[in-house]
């Protein structure tokens, strides 16, 4: 499962400190939709498979990268990242 999740959430892993420096985040429409879908998918994983999903999120250091999506210009992406961040804690 971890190998499949690693390939699915590769773009979350690729969010680097470059995105942390540019506020608000300038994302294209396709990028914001992709991150929103991944937030929703990871929310479902966290609800259904809590132990393995929490281990994946903490092991790949996704929490600060997801928190950087809170600075996006699109409100729906900020809400998706916030709902995911509530499930991680």
What does this structure look like?
By secondary structure, the chain is an all-alpha fold. It has a domain at 28-89. The protein has helices at 2-8, 10-13, 17-21, 29-48, 50-59, 63-68, 75-88. The longest helix is centred in the middle third of the chain and has 20 residues, at 29-48. The radius of gyration is 12 Å and the shape is globular.
What does the oligomeric state look like here?
single chain
Helix content: over 70%
What percent of residues are in strands?
A: under 5%
Query: Ends: how far apart?
Result: 22 Å
Largest sheet: none
What is the H/E order? Answer: HHHHHHH
Rg estimate, integer Å:
12 Å
Helical stretch tally:
7
Number of E-type strands? 0
Q: Which class of secondary structure composition applies to the elements? A: mainly alpha
Mean pLDDT: 81
Which residue ranges are poorly predicted, with pLDDT under 50 across at least 5 consecutive positions? none
Q: What is the molecular shape?
A: globular
Concise synopsis of the structure shown:
This protein is an all-alpha fold. Helices cover 74% and strands 0% of the residues.
Offer a few descriptive terms.
single chain, 89 residues, mainly alpha, globular
Ordered list of secondary-structure elements with their pairings:
Layout (H helix, E strand, L loop, with lengths): L1 H7 L1 H4 L3 H5 L7 H20 L1 H10 L3 H6 L6 H14 L1
Helix pairs in contact: 4-5, 4-7
């Amino acid at each position: 499962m971890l190998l499949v999740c690693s390939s699915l959430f590769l773009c979350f892993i690729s969010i680097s400190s470059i995105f942390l420096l540019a506020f608000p985040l300038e994302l294209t429409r396709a990028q914001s939709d992709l991150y929103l879908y991944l937030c929703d998918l990871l929310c479902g994983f966290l609800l259904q498979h809590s132990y393995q999903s929490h281990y994946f999120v903490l092991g790949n250091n996704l929490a600060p990268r997801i928190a950087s999506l809170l600075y996006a210009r699109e409100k729906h992406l900020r809400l998706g990242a916030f709902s995911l961040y509530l499930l991680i804690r």
